[in-house]
Design brief:
Helix 2 packs across helix 5, helix 11 runs parallel beside helix 12 and helix 11 crosses helix 16. This protein is globular. The chain is built from 19 helices and 19 strands. The protein is of the alpha/beta class and 555 residues long. The structure holds 2-acetamido-2-deoxy-6-O-phosphono-alpha-D-glucopyranose and magnesium ion (MG). The site of magnesium ion has 6 residues, from loops. Its EC number is 5.4.2.3. It comes from Stylosanthes scabra. Belongs to the phosphohexose mutase family. Keywords: Isomerase, Magnesium, Metal-binding, Phosphoprotein.
Length: 555
């Protein structure tokens, strides 16, 4: 790099000195730590984002959030040109950059990397980075660090998009790079217009059924999602939403609220109680990229019926399969286009959901935990639906299939206007505009769930009856070194330490419908245990025995 560039980095470096003795790694969700430790990391990720933009000749996103973690934490992650996660191939560089202990080493690292990647540096090209942050109080200062990081690369410009949900920023990056309108207002308009389009396409005989009438109550986790949902709701009609825990009433982010809490603890979030029994409720996480539904048990101490990511996936799969079969029946032979539909889950998907989807004749794929893996797999299909049980997921439509849908709807609008097949094609097109194509998005997810329930004429109870979850239990085990656990087959089999998998198998066979796996967490210093069996007692007992095994092998 030339002298101007070098002195620019060195000068800003001194304002963001790395904390002593802290080693961070770019995990499944970017860098995360106590916010007080992150200034230097975020500054460096600003540099990384600028380099990524120079390398890809595209707009890049930088999001400051720690999602469902406690309010004193924060984090930072990159959105790649297509709106997806940072290419895994750059993660080792992100780690090295964040941990470079001196300015000289930082400069050397950048020099080597820029050379290796053939990045045109020194102001030859321009770079543009969109910055977003959630509602955390530490976000503003960290945003400043990100701006300085971007500005320390000659030719790079940071654009502050303000307080956003994580999926909004990913959506904007994708839209910008596709040359589409990409403001926050455009996001709201795209979602609301495609939602209204789907409402208009509800079969008239179904829209009269009253199973889904009544409001939806949403727990906003005291984060950014509730605020944005209130804006979005004003643009819709045909949907009444009450937002609680919207952060405006002083509640603490993610404390006893939010999708992560509701899904893991299986209890009502703060602000909900037996008075809400029977009502359709949903919960977002702190940065609104996760969504779960639930209903409150009457007269009980906070127990809920959870309708998790697996069931959202099943609902989406049913709807899409229905539209595809209408099209295949009428259009399939004419157009000779059989769309491939693929389902992607992780080992955390409840076994009952996987069975249900397979019984529908759908192809179910398993990947390791982490959005990047699921997303990548789902992108292999014309329509790929992926969800983690924790509520992160979306539906991906391939460019070629969207092209086919556009051509087909156009043709049908002259040949058989108002026909079932035209409506089915229009529904799929609207769904592809509604559901975030960049990343799982609780806001677009809520709208798609709501309109499908109306389309089916279903209540949340009817939806929840699609299948019954097998009882399950999750535990975490503190071990000396969690990286000693190495897994394969989408984390379902332990290959190291030797003997552990065999011991797990020996336990699991003792239980009817038993299934169990262990994996090192990507976000916490623990090994996670998941167990499933035909009764809750059995699932608990299997999880406990396997947790003991983990402790014996690694404790
Ligand atoms: C991160 C992942 C999420 C995954 C979770 C697992 C992204 C954007 N987020 O939150 O997909 O389910 O980690 O956490 O990839 P764990 O590794 O601690 O179990
Ligand atoms: Mg999140």
């Amino acid at each position: 790099m030339n002298e101007q560039q070098q002195s620019l980095i060195l000068e800003s470096y001194s304002r963001f000195l790395p904390p002593q003795g802290v080693k961070l790694s770019y995990g499944t969700a970017g860098f995360r730590a106590d916010a007080s430790l992150l200034q230097s990391t975020v500054f460096r990720v600003g540099i990384l984002a600028a380099l990524r933009s120079l390398k890809t000749h595209s707009v890049i996103g930088l999001m400051i959030t720690a999602s469902h973690n406690k309010v004193s934490d924060n984090g930072v992650k990159i959105a790649d040109p297509n709106g997806g996660m940072l290419s895994q191939h750059w993660e080792p560089f992100a780690d090295a950059l964040a941990n470079a202990p001196s300015p000289q080493e930082l400069i050397q690292l950048i020099n080597e990397f820029v050379k290796k990647e053939g990045i045109q540096f020194d102001g030859v090209r321009s770079a543009e980075i969109l910055l977003g942050r959630d509602t955390r109080p530490s976000g503003e200062a960290l945003l400043e660090a990100a701006k300085q990081g971007v500005a320390s690369v000659v030719g790079a410009v940071a654009v502050d998009m303000g307080i956003l949900t994580t999926p909004q920023l990913h959506w904007m990056v994708r839209a910008r790079n596709k040359g589409m309108k990409a403001s926050e207002q455009d996001y709201f308009e795209e979602l609301s217009s495609s939602f209204r389009c789907l409402v208009d396409l509800i079969p008239s005989e179904r829209s009269k059924s009253d199973g889904t009438n009544g409001k939806l109550v949403v727990d906003g986790a005291n984060g950014v999602g509730g605020l944005k949902l209130k804006v979005l709701e004003k643009l819709l009609n045909g949907l009444v939403v009450e937002v609680r825990n919207s952060s405006e009433d002083g509640g603490i982010l993610n404390e006893g609220v939010g999708a992560d809490y509701v899904q893991k603890e299986k209890v009502v979030p703060h602000g909900f109680g037996s008075g809400d029994a029977g009502i359709r409720c949903a919960s977002l996480d702190g940065d609104a990229d996760r969504l779960v539904y639930f209903t409150v048990h009457p007269e009980s101490s906070g127990a809920i019926d959870l309708v998790d990511g697996d069931k959202i996936l099943s609902l989406f799969a049913l709807f899409i399969r229905e539209q595809l079969s209408i099209l295949n029946e009428k259009e399939g032979t004419k157009n000779n286009h059989q769309a491939s539909l693929g389902i992607v889950q992780t080992a955390y998907a409840n076994g009952a959901s996987t069975n249900y989807l397979k019984q529908l004749g759908l192809e179910v794929n398993l990947t390791p935990t982490g959005v990047k893996y699921l997303h990548e797999k789902a992108a292999e299909f014309d329509i790929g639906i992926y969800f983690e049980a924790n509520g992160h997921g979306t539906v991906l439509f391939s460019e070629s299939f969207i092209g086919w849908l556009e051509a087909t709807t156009k043709e049908l609008s002259t040949r058989s206007k108002g026909s079932d097949e035209e409506k089915a094609a229009l529904r799929l097109l609207a769904a592809s505009r509604l559901i975030n194509q960049a990343v799982g998005d609780a806001l677009s997810g809520v709208l798609l769930v709501e309109v499908i329930l109306q389309h089916m004429g279903w209540s949340i109870h009817r939806w929840n009856e699609l299948y019954h979850d097998l009882p399950s239990r999750q535990l975490k085990v503190k071990v000396a070194d969690r990286t000693a656990v190495i897994t394969t087959n989408a984390e379902t089999v332990v290959v190291s330490p030797p003997g552990l998998q065999e011991a797990i198998n020996n336990e699991t066979v003792k239980y009817s419908q038993g299934r169990c796996f262990v994996r090192p967490s990507g976000t916490e210093d623990v090994v996670r245990v998941y167990a499933e069996a035909s009764s809750q007692e059995a699932a608990d007992s299997l999880a406990n025995s396997v947790a003991k095994l983990v402790d014996q092998f690694l404790g």
